[in-house]
Amino acid sequence: MEKIRDRFKQSKSSSRETVKLRKRSSILYSTDDGRANTHNAIGVSVIVFTIFFRLVNCVLVQTSFVPDEYWQSLEISHRMPIHCINLLQLGMTSLTILTYGYETWEWREGIRGYSYPLLFALMYKFLQLISYDTVQLLVFVPRVFQALLCAYADLKLYRLVLQWETPDVAKWTLFCQLCSWFTWYCCTRTLSNTMETVLTTLALCFYPLLGSKMHNSWKYLCLVSLAVVVRPTALIVWVPLLVCHLCREQNKPRLVTQQCFPIAALTLAVSTLIDSVFYGKWICVQWNFLKLNVLESVGEFYGTHPWHWYFSQGFLVVMGPHLPLFLHGCSLSTKKHRILLITIIWTTVIYSFLAHKEFRFVYPVLPFCVVFCGMSLAKLQTWRKPAAVLLLVSNLIPALYTGLIHQRGTLDVMSDLQRLCDLSRGQRSPDVLFLMPCHSTPLYSHLHCPLKLRFLECPPDLMGNKEYVDEAEMFFSDPLSWMRRSFSSQEMLPTHVVMFDCLEKEIASFLLENRFAKQAEIFHTHFPEGRVGENIVIYVRNPSHYFTV
Predict the structure, then answer these.
(1) Residue 29's pLDDT is what?
(2) What are the strands, taking DSSP E only, across 139-204?
(3) What is the helix (H) or strand (E) element at residue 496, kind and residue range?
């Protein structure tokens, strides 16, 4: 009996002790949103690896893509009078040195906004203040800025998928994002499409996706508004997402009146103020952009494609080797992924209605697509590693080729011409004539000295003149006659002529008559087409007075 009492006392006293449960170590039960910081890639944290990867990406992209990456950003930044602007007036009243650069017809017609170039103009001003405004830094610093922004967007996308899906899907989504050859090719360029893609990716991370814990309406609506300011067509991507949010929202009037309208109004007001200051008059750039490019189809002047181009070529090229994984991932999608699929299809269809089409226009939906690629790789078991290796290698080849080799001549030739800046104070200042398809090369943003530069212009006809022919078209229709007509006397001749090698034979007699000699031949592309040759050549008149290569 005594033994039974002792056991009862022991069990009673032990029941008073705190019971300690084993802590679950699985990441599935973790509530720490900062766990993305602890994941490793090749022995280093994901954050460090991603930033380092994008900086390497920036260094290894040394080619040109489209003229807009210079003419609609850096060239405008180089001539913006940001030094001491008097905000009390709408005129541009800079109180310091005169800036120089070239404005294309888009800026004269008021269809481009100054908000995006202003970022780079501020960087230029900072470099000037610390006396480091060399041409190399003026070109490189904006691209480093874009690379860091892209790395941040990559990490936010990874964190979104990490809490929206499984850690395995998040890991492979980041892998697919970093592997994408088109993202590698575009993400460090100073294109408005690049900034649009970054802002769209960040906005998606705060969008109220079904099952997402990161949603914040204020943040995502602000980012969407900024994307529309940078590029008004960004609204196309967000139409289905905004409609979906509105339909699911219980308090619709509150969403519209207390969030959507105030954010849109404030963003538009600030953007209009910035544009009005630099244009010197009140102006709404977003309306002008949509009117000329969408309603009046001015973009058709620069080329048209059939309606199916995005489905038969454009989207397929942008996806590249990711396409099979994307299609497999789509087959695995559930109800919560539906809005992403709808957005991808909607964007591609709407852009198909526009006559002028380019690969970069569908770039903003590429991060949406890599989510499905990550789902596909996470689902594969036996074939996962071979598929990942094949994806890496098949993207590495086009990424390195397009980044280091294809279309690099138009940048290399500007490096050669930089040497003329030292001669601009001489008895005869250099006078450079570019006989190339218009806007083939950058201009003052890649020289940073006020040389006399001339090139063939090609603004579209905005007056409805059916007989209109731009200067570039007139030249290429009969190059030799144009040269003799334009330079009828020796005093009018340029000192340097820059052109593609496919034009040499057509104006060889003119060059010989006027004592021009070839001084440089620079590789451009292995795939010459039409008026674009394999090499770029520089001819110099009286070459002994100028540099030799």
Answers:
(1) 42
(2) none
(3) strand 496-500
Residue range 354-365: average pLDDT?
94
| Overall pTM > 0.85 | yes
CA distances from 409 to 406, 503, 504, 534 (A): 8, 16, 16, 9
Reduce the DSSP state of residue 522 to 3 states and report it.
strand
| Inter-CA distances, 478 with 151, 301, 302, 379, 505, Å | 48, 21, 21, 60, 12
CA–CA dist 16, 40 (Å, integer): 43
Residues 6+ apart with CB under 8 A from 527: 406
CA atoms of 340 and 371, how far apart (whole Å): 9
Residues 291 and 296: their CA atoms lie apart, in Å, by: 6
Q: Report pLDDT digits (tens) over 71-84.
A: 999 999 998 865 43
Which H or E element spans position 4?
helix 2-15
Show the CA angle centred on residue 204, arms to residues 201 and 207, nearest 5°.
Answer: 160
The CB density around residue 104, as the number of other CB atoms within 10 Å, is: 19
| Phi, psi dihedrals of residue 307, rounded to the nearest 5° | -60, -30
Closest by CA to 78, choosing from 133, 160, 31, is: 133
Q: How confident is the model at residue 161 (pLDDT cuts 50, 70, 90)?
A: very high
Q: Which two tokens stand for residue 455?
A: 């090139």
Residue among 113, 115, 147, 142 nearest 126 (CA): 142
C-alpha angle 9-15-18 in degrees, rounded to nearest 5: 145
Whether the Cβ atoms of residue 124 and residue 133 lie closer than 8 Å to each other: yes
Mean pLDDT is lowest, of 11-20, 152-161, 277-286, 324-333, for 11-20
Q: How far apart are CA 376 and CA 396, in angstroms?
A: 20
Give the pairing of strands 431-435 and 452-455.
parallel
Distance, in Å, from the CA atom of 364 to the CA atom of 195, rounded to the nearest integer, reads 9
Burial 345-375, CB ≥16 within 10 A → b, else e: ebbbeebbebbbbbbbbbbbbbbbbbbbbbb
Residue 324 vs residues 194, 252, 374, 387, 391: alpha-carbon distances, Å: 25, 39, 12, 10, 10
Are the CB atoms for 227 and 393 separated by under 8 Å?
no
pLDDT digits (tens, 9 = 90+) for 109-149: 999 999 999 999 999 999 989 989 899 999 999 999 999 99
What are the structure tokens assigned to 105, written together? Answer: 């017809």
